[in-house]
Amino acid sequence: MRFILTTDFQVEKFKQSAKKLRRSNTLPHREALDKVAKANGYNHWHHVTICHQETVNRFGDGVKAGTIDPTSYVEREVAFILGCAEKGDARLVKIGSLVFFSTEDGDAWMLDPADSLALCLRWRGERQEFSIHESPERFEIQWDGRFDIRDGAFFVESANPRIGVRTILGYPSTDIKDVLA
Length: 181
Fold this sequence. Notes:
Strands 1, 2, 3, 4, 5, 6, 9, 10 and 11 form a nine-stranded mixed beta sheet that branches. Strands 7-8 form a two-stranded antiparallel ribbon. 36% of the residues lie in helices and 27% in strands. A hairpin with a 5-residue loop joins strand 3 and strand 4. The chain folds into two domains: 58 residues, no CATH class; 85 residues, no CATH class. The chain is α+β, with helices and mostly antiparallel strands.
């Protein structure tokens, strides 16, 4: 299941929307919550609650929309996704404009969908060399490739000689595409 940054404010807003929907359509409460969750990009209401708890775990209780500064999360998310890859824990995380994912095979990537940029963090179980610099004002990422999702497969052109140009099957391509939509 993919992670979506979910603040207290968003959860309350979703609950209010579900309450209105329930009243106007005489839907059961649970069904109204699920409809609102799906309309906002989640799989179901339980997905909302899981993402909210993960947001609290990563950024602290009471986090507000727009208060998570992108310059403070890149290295933390890289460490998180590398840890998941090392354990073979497949995860997909979107925070701000960046997407991070790990696979059961131990690969990990960071993507910038706006520019189709890719950075391999871990390949075939081995951490890759990469450069990310953060400061309070900004962050810089030395991207080493470009990516695309084609016919359900992950296509990458990487300057990393171990990866090169390849189409990779078995990555969460459909989930990545859904997150990008």
